[in-house]
Each structure stands twice: as C-alpha cells, then as structure tokens.
Amino acid sequence: MVQAAGERLDQLTKPPGSLGRLEEIARQVAGITGTLSPDLSRKAVIVMAGDHGVCVEGVSAFPPEVTPQMVLNFLHGGAAVNVLARHAGADVVCVDVGVNADIEHPQLVRRKVRYGTANIAAGPAMSREEAAEAIVAGLETVRDLAERGYRLFATGEMGIGNTTPSSALLAALTGADAEAIVGRGTGIDEAKRLHKAAVVRRALEANRDRLGGGGDALGALAAVGGLEIAGLVGVILGAAAHRCPVVIDGFISSAAALVASRLAPASAAYMLPSHLSQEQGHRQLLASIGLKPMLEMEMRLGEGTGAALGFPIVEVAMKIMNEMATFESAGISKG
Question: Which structural domain range is residue 272 located in?
Fold first, then answer.
C-alpha cells in the first residue's frame, strides 16, 4: 500500500515530492491502515496520569498535588490539550493508571495499578509485574476505543516530575550522559537542573543491577520509569496492533515510544512524531528511535498538546492524496 500511495502522489498536479513531509506522512498512514483513504474522523488524545516518588528529591517546580488537580482540569475540559483537541475535532480520554489520590469523575477511565511510583533515586519505581500491568492498561484503553470506531490516536500524559524518569529511561536505554539530556522540565533554574541530573545519575546507580545494560526495556521501565509512561507504551503498541496511526507528543511520550520500539521494533512504523520539544534531550531521544518531528514550536507543556497539533497535519496529508486532481483528470501535461 505504501507503493500504491507513492504512485498516487506522483500522479497529482505537482512536481514529484514537492509536498515533502506531507507526502511521507500520506505514504506512512496508507501503509499503516492498508488503504489510500482511511476514515480518521474519530480520533482521541489518550492522557495517561500517574505520580512519581522521585518528586521528594525536589526535581520539579510544582508539587505532586498538581497531578490530580490537573486530571480534573482535563476532565472538565479546561486544559491546553482540551482546547487544541477540540480545535482538531478530537476527544480527550483521561486514564488514571497511577495517580497518588482517589479521583471521582464519570468520564475518568480508572485503571490504577498503584498509587504512584517509588523514588527511583533510592530503588526501583515499581515491579516488572506492575510495569506490565500498566502497559496492559494502555493496550486495553486503545482496544476499547478502537471497538467504538476510533482510528487515530495521540499520546498525552500528566505526572508531576515525569521528565526525570523519562531522562533516566533515555540514559538507561541509550547510554546518554545525564547532564547532557536533563532539561528544565516545568521551568526549574540551572542549579535545580544540575541537581536533577545528579538525581538521574543516582537513579541509574541505585538500579544498576535491574537495568540489564540497556538491553532489557521492560526492566528499565520498571526500574526508572513511570506508570503513565508504561501506560503510553501500551497505547503505542495497542495502536500498532489495531493498524492505527499514533501521533507521539513530546519528551515523556517519546520516552514511552523508545520503550515500545525496544519491546516491539515494528511499532516504530506506526509512530508519527508531532513536534520537537524544548526539553534538552528530546532531539536525541527521537533520533534514537529514528523519528523526525513534524513541527518545532518551542513547546514543553506535555499533556498531548503537540500531538493534538499534529492531528490536522495527518488529516491534510490524506486529503492531499485523495482530493487533489491528477494530471490526467485535470488535463495538464505532465513533465
């Protein structure tokens, strides 16, 4: 189907390849879905939420209490991702996979594995069984949505402190230097960034025996990851299993994408990276998966905001392939 999409694009009234990444995306989506004209009208940003024990190390500008507060903001439609998703005609699906609080709301998807992770600077975030359970939560969320007709997904997350485990995962799985990849997260200053890098190094040392030298992605996820990151691994793998494109958000979502690509290398072909985050290690993280972002908007919010911006780009790529005239239909001489 990728070849058929390429042949179709080359028949359109434009020089071959002149629409650049839009043509790449059209070919990729055709290959994913098995058709030149997939119905992508039902789409969802899946926001996985979980808390992090490493917050006790002072790695975030915000307190952990913000996680459940923001989950309620998502559910009430007031967050940035809600605004951008509404503009894109998408739904926001919020999943509690590890929030350290009990949240009551009729639209909340409850798949809590545990009440937050442990402090990765002192030991493992969770057990391998808990990491696997959180992955299953993501798989089941996509399954349920696919059964309701959703065919385009995006990754989103909420978890105060989660750039720290994401940095630790990147370092653990690729050997990247902690200081080179640790960024400012929600807006910490340089002194706190250096402290955060030191915390990541402590986490890698505390979990050295569990990391498997970078060859055990599930082990690394359990040791230094997060529950919402694990949930997003399941979302990505679930989208691939259902032959649905999945738009990847920023740094945290890309850490989940890295784990997914190590667990199932074929899943990378289903990923559409939305944007390059301002987070310091994001470019290296995307490169480690072999992904090129669509946009560079100097964003660092998370939530799925960049991925929601990516939805219209994916849709317009398919409109180009299906709605443009061919040289033959338009009666235009082909060069």
Answer: 40-312
